[in-house]
Predict the 3D structure of the following.
Amino acid sequence: MSILEVSNIRKSFGKTEVLKDISFTLEKGEVLSIIGSSGSGKTTLLRCLNFLETADCGRIAVDDNVLFDSSSKIKLTDEKVRENRLNFGLVFQNFNLFPQYTVLQNLTLAPTLLKKDNIAAINQRAFELIKKVGLEEKADAYPCQLSGGQQQRVAIARALALNPKILFFDEPTSALDPELTGEILKVIKGLAAEKMTMVIVTHEMAFARDVSDKVIFMDGGVIVEQGKPEDVINNPQQERTRHFLSRFQENKTI
């Protein structure tokens, strides 16, 4: 049974259609990487799945629970949107930590506001996650006292704090210096080894090939090609996919 079912998603901004009939499924414990040039619709797709944007039409279901169906006459309320978002964790490009809060406070804020558990249990879970991302000595530090790589590891821990069913990454290394990229990819690989279900928008082709169970190549708002990483990245069938990947091959990225 698929944990995530995405069917016929479309999204326009004004007269510009950004997503054109996007459909795919994801099994529990799988990692899906979405690749493609800037402007191909990857981030908009993540934002629609996480309900930061509302798709114009289509259907989204998690664990057979329909979160969005444009054919339904029932309009999503703000409360329902917030409820839907709890299925997902989202790690942004630019960390988006609260600068006025410590690492520990960044992790405990949402669970505390949502009354997920008692304070002691919430703090214990936060410390466990801080340790998981290798920052146990930084629990009382503020974001400004951390490197970019450390901030992104905190962002990953914060996304995990609410125990999401699916974790989304929107180009998690794009704001980092190259020497810091490896530490983030190591954390994500660790989550993959633990069978965390993940959707990753990335330009790291070698990483996408090594960590993913599935790869989707998007271009112009459509899915051009999807399948196993060894097929899509190593042996693409579509000319548009081959052209995109040729730039990385020339740079010996993969």
Notes: The two ends are 32 Å apart (CA to CA). Strands lie at 2-13, 16-27, 31-35, 57-62, 65-69, 88-91, 166-170, 198-201, 214-219, 222-227.
